[in-house]
Amino acid sequence: MSRRPPKPQNGAPDRAPVTPVQLSKAEIEFVRGLVIYQDPHIVALNKPSGLSSQGGRGQVHTLDELLWAFAKPGKARPRLIHRLDRDTSGVILTARTKPAAGFLGKAMMARKFAKTYRAIVTPGAPEPAAGVIDVALRRDEQGREAYMRVCTAEHPDAETARSRYRTLADAPGAALLELDPETGRMHQLRVHLASIGRPIAGDARYGGALVVGGHAVPRLMLHAAALIFPHPSGGEKRLEAPIPADMAALIGALGLG
């Protein structure tokens, strides 16, 4: 599930580092190949599964660092407006300028963004087939790992969380859902679906199946398919990212297409 990067008090995304990250030619070509839309104000990308949005570990550059591929000499890179989990694929939005970042950051905080996801869940469609999960979540730190847990609204660490879901297709042992999170808590969709007994396939952290219908699940089957938001120059913008090949293949193999 997506979540916003830390922000200063004015609601604008975090500042770009002073020193640019040095990228290889292959990395520059790779991240530029992810672009699904760009204009003077924003750049939107189709993030692949396995790429950390920000703050990743190890030697591989995060998407936030790869954004230096779009920076003009002496200028800052575009700024992430929100995040996607490392293993979630799909639409992610960045701002090219500080005014655009401030505008979009405030719009995000005011919940003027609408996000739509696709997910494969097991062991079948939820009951009812469409509905709302309105269950508070709390953060649970375990060593270097962070989890989200369902909790009562009265818990001192409770954060309100609300997710809408709709079944698009149902087959023996699995279902394809459309998801619309109304709030943006870390791992929200993953934990909410697990809480109703329909974990997302490939989500080992929250009990998702790693094999479905005899087919291996290559990764977390969660994709940010569409994003609607107010554009800094006026009006509303809708961006879509096609379902990646590995997820489309599993949808077809399970008869959910």
Largest sheet: 10 strands, mixed
Q: What is the arithmetic mean of pLDDT? A: 92
Radius of gyration: 18 Å
Q: Uncertain runs with pLDDT below 50, 5 residues or more?
A: 1-14
In sequence order, what are the helices and strands, one letter per element?
Answer: HEEHEEHEEEEEEHEEEEH
CATH-defined superfamily of the domain at 116-222: Pseudouridine synthase
Gap between N and C termini, in Å?
23 Å
Strand content: 25-35%
The name CATH uses for the topology of the domain at 116-222 is: Pseudouridine synthase
Number of strands: 14
H/I helix tally = 5
Explain what this protein looks like in three dimensions.
The structure is a single chain. The protein is of the alpha+beta class and 257 residues long. The protein has a domain at 116-222: Pseudouridine synthase. The chain contains five helices and 14 strands. It has helices spanning 25-32, 63-66, 98-109, 188-195, 245-253; strands at 35-38, 42-47, 79-80, 89-95, 114-121, 130-134, 137-142, 145-150, 162-171, 174-181, 211-212, 215-216, 222-230, 236-240. Strands 1, 2, 3, 4, 5, 6, 9, 10, 13 and 14 form a ten-stranded mixed sheet that branches. The longest helix has 12 residues, at 98-109. The protein is globular and about 55 Å long. Mean pLDDT is 92; it is low at 1-14.
Output the keywords:
two-stranded antiparallel sheet, 257 residues, globular, Pseudouridine synthase, 16% helix
Reconstruct the topology from this structure.
Layout: H1 25-32, E1 35-38, E2 42-47, H2 63-66, E3 79-80, E4 89-95, H3 98-109, E5 114-121, E6 130-134, E7 137-142, E8 145-150, E9 162-171, E10 174-181, H4 188-195, E11 211-212, E12 215-216, E13 222-230, E14 236-240, H5 245-253
Parallel strand pairs: 4-13
Antiparallel strand pairs: 1-2, 2-4, 3-4, 5-10, 5-13, 6-9, 7-8, 9-10, 11-12, 13-14
